[in-house]
Specification:
By secondary structure, the protein is mostly beta strands. The chain has helices spanning 37-44, 125-133, 139-147, 255-261, 263-267; strands at 32-33, 53-64, 67-78, 83-88, 96-101, 108-113, 118-123, 157-159, 164-168, 172-178, 184-191, 197-205, 208-216, 222-233, 251-252. A 15-stranded mixed beta sheet has the order 1-8-9-10-11-12-13-14-2-3-4-5-6-7-15. The chain starts with 31 loop residues before the first strand and ends with a helix.
């Protein structure tokens, strides 16, 4: 029997990738001690800190592993790390559904490749998401990126000139900027461990971003623009949201198989 590729690649076609627009120019250097760093980060995250759950729609475009991608995903995520991502197809079943359950709700990551009728259970969310999309974010990082919030516990930093504050804990670097009206805004977060990633935020509404540029520290791995819509803050997300009904006929798939057939495996890691 001929097996179709298990890699959904956010739903879509791959063609030769073009160079994306230039990244935001962030200030460099160690800077000087900043007594107001904690004040700046608290002010910059005032809108996102009360958020415990969020549901939204993502329009994703850009490149993964040298190929162009475009797709639409529905998401529900929580600050504690429960997550559900559903890659919507133009017609028919979703391309994939990926959840991260907590407690007794299908604990850990579950991936259902609806069209291939294959399933991965009890995986690590970050590893599964990376195998499917190339993006190395765990569920709590995904929540922070989608809400434009800083990872917890970062409150000391340095001044990079008058209008920038850099806060870091060795795992993440967070760049906060003083806007023209004097308010502070978190404009970028950089993940420093592993393959590394960078998120830039724009088009703010009520203090939360509606546009995210997500790029890899390794050239060519991924460069995505994510437009958020239908954003609902603190909706009730019951346990059923993070539970997938797995067909009894579904065949198992391993993480190694996903890595082989996914975007990085198909196009060169």
């Amino acid at each position: 029997m001929t097996r179709r590729s298990a890699a959904p690649l956010l739903a879509l076609s791959l063609v030769c990738a073009a160079c994306g627009p230039a990244l935001m120019k962030l200030p460099a250097g160690p800077g000087a001690p900043a007594a107001d760093a904690e004040e700046a980060i608290l002010a910059a995250t005032a809108a996102c800190r009360p958020v415990s759950t969020v549901s939204l729609e993502m329009s994703v475009s850009g490149s993964i592993a040298g190929g162009r991608v475009r797709g639409r995903l529905l998401a529900g995520v929580t600050r504690l790390g429960a997550a559900r991502l559903e890659a919507v197809a133009p017609a028919g079943q979703p391309v994939f559904i990926l959840t991260n359950g907590l407690g007794f709700v299908q604990p850990d990551a579950t991936l259902l490749l609806s069209r291939d009728n294959r399933v991965l259970e009890r995986g690590r969310f970050g590893a599964v998401l990376e195998a499917v999309t190339g993006i190395p974010l765990n569920a709590q990082n995904l929540f922070a990126v989608l809400t434009g919030c800083a990872p917890t516990g970062i409150d000391e930093g340095s001044a990079l000139g008058d209008d920038w504050r850099l806060l870091t804990d060795g795992l993440y670097a967070v760049y906060v900027h003083r806007e023209k009206d004097g308010s502070w805004r978190l404009l970028a977060t950089v993940g420093l461990m592993g393959t590394g990633w960078r998120a830039e935020y724009g088009d703010f509404q009520e203090g939360l971003p509606r546009r995210i540029r997500l790029t890899s520290a390794r050239p060519g791995a991924f460069d995505l623009t994510i437009a958020l819509s239908q954003v609902e803050v603190n909706p009730p997300l019951p346990d059923e949201v993070f539970r997938i009904q797995i067909p009894v006929s579904a065949n198992p798939i391993t993480l190694d198989e996903l890595k082989t057939s996914g975007p990085l495996g198909a196009n060169g890691r």
